[in-house]
Each structure stands twice: as C-alpha cells, then as structure tokens.
Write a structure and sequence with these properties.
The chain is mostly helical and 274 residues long. Helices cover 76% and strands 5% of the residues. Helix 2 crosses helix 6 and helix 7 runs antiparallel to helix 9. Keywords: Membrane, Transmembrane, Transmembrane helix.
Length: 274
C-alpha cells in the first residue's frame, strides 16, 4: 500500500516539483551566463539572482510540499485523501517519505546549481573557475584537519538536519488543522509554527547548556571538544567562537521523533476537515 501511495504522491506533485527545481536550475544557468558576460548591471543582477535561487531551491521545495500537504490532507482534496482505504498513519508516512525523497532530490539539484554557478562566481573571488578543481582543493584542505570519518559524519549530519524541516512543517500543519485551530484555515498551522519555533529555540538552547560539547580544533585536528558556557552566552549565541556547539543535535533528534509520533497520532485520531 505504501508503494502505491508513494506512486500517487509522485504523480500528483511531479509537475510543480519539476517546474520548481527545473526552473530554478534554468534560472541559475541563465544567471551564470549573465555573470560570465560581464555586462554592466546584468552581470551584477546575474550574480545576485544566482546566489539567491541556489540557496532557496531546497527550502522552497520543502515549503511547497508543506503547503501541498495541507491542501491535500485538510482542505477540499482532503476528503479524497481521507477516503483512501488505508490507515491514516499509513497515508502520513507515505507523504513523509515522499517529502524526504523530494528533499534529497532538491539537495542534488542545489549541488548541480552550485557547480554551474561557480564557473562565474569562483573567478570573482579570485579562485579557480572549475568547480571540480575547487572541490578537490577544498577536500584536500579539509582532510588536513579532519579524518575521512569525521568529514563523512559532517555530511551525513547535514543531510539529516535538512530532512528534519519537513517533519516539523508537517507537524505544524497537522496540529494546526486539528480543532479548534482549524477554524482559522491556514492561520492554524501558522500559529503552531510560530509557537513551535520559540519552543524549539528554548529547548535547543538548554540542550547546549546541558550538553556542552562541539566541533573545535584540538592538537591541530578537528575533533569533538567540550567547552564552558552559561545561559546568557548560549541564548545570545556569544562566546566559544572557536567551537561550534553540537548539543542542539540530540535535542533536534528528540523533537523530530516527538513530531513524527504526534503527527502519526493525529492522522489516526485527530483528523478534522473543514
């Protein structure tokens, strides 16, 4: 059943996802061309547009999927979705899995866009215009300070961190679509999203205090090190400039697990359409 639901999600969203990712990649390619031409105004516009579009490809994809999740689950299309002969949580997990797959695809397209854009942007910074040459140099530089295992862990952690966003968006949409918040339409999910943001900030801040460890240089190599902090430094983001705190990662993992469980429960017990 999950495979069938995944196929349905693909067929239903492939058009707007293709336009979003394909159109974004085309805009970056055109921006790169403008930047390479060194035309007054157009070149500067191409650089600015290329940077913005490259950075927004992934978040724009995830936000578009969250809006589609709301419309297809809790608005007019929701009556069709909820009538599918499958458990609510099964439908939810299919949508969640598709959001993860689409997010990974958006990351790949973002990487491709960055490679294209670097051919124009790199020389502006006085660096090699060949993106693969630059990537090799960057990898060689990083390998002087970190082992291959550490670099792999950083990349995997980054990917997983990006996949947390759809979990949070879908949670906010589902809770905001439960009674009585569903009376506010799209306002319900927005209210939950704002409240969720502040709660998450508090939890991750306290997590950094409770788990004071992070990435820093130790003996000339990148390693997990401990550091001292206090509430005001953690809340304001001050202090320990030579260490990147990692205590927020376990907190985000627990928050994501709680969001998954609560949204699973919502689909089975709390679905309310208006």
């Amino acid at each position: 059943m999950t495979a069938t639901l995944l196929k349905h999600e693909y067929l239903r969203t492939r058009t707007f996802l293709g336009l979003l990712l394909g159109g974004g990649l085309a805009i970056v390619a055109l921006s790169t061309l403008f930047a390479l031409m060194e035309w007054p105004v157009l070149s500067e516009l191409g650089v600015a547009l290329g940077v913005v579009v490259t950075l927004l490809l992934l978040p724009a994809t995830q936000i578009a999927l969250a809006v589609d999740y709301w419309r297809s689950s809790y608005r007019q299309l929701g009556y069709f979705t909820q009538s599918i002969p499958a458990k609510g949580s099964t439908i939810y997990w299919a949508k969640m899995l598709w959001a993860w797959l689409a997010s990974i695809a958006a990351m790949v397209v973002t990487a491709a866009a960055a490679l294209i854009f670097w051919t124009a942007f790199g020389p502006m910074l006085g660096l090699a215009g060949n993106p693969f040459t630059m990537a090799g140099e960057l990898l060689d530089f990083a390998s002087q300070y970190a082992s291959s295992g550490m670099l792999t862990a950083i990349v995997v952690s980054f990917v997983l961190l990006m996949l947390v966003w759809p979990v949070q968006y879908f949670f906010c949409v589902s809770i905001g679509s439960e009674a009585p918040l569903n009376r506010f339409g799209i306002g319900g999910p927005i209210i939950v999203l704002i409240a969720f943001y502040f709660v998450t900030q508090l939890i991750t801040t306290f997590a950094i205090l409770i788990l004071p460890f992070g990435l820093g240089l130790e003996g000339g190599n990148l390693a997990v090190v401990s550091f001292e902090t206090n509430f005001f430094d953690a809340f304001a983001g001050n202090g320990n400039d030579d260490v990147m705190p990692l205590g927020f990662l376990p907190a985000l993992a627990l928050i994501a697990a709680a969001c998954l469980w609560r949204t699973h429960y919502s689909w089975n017990r709390k679905v309310s359409l208006v």
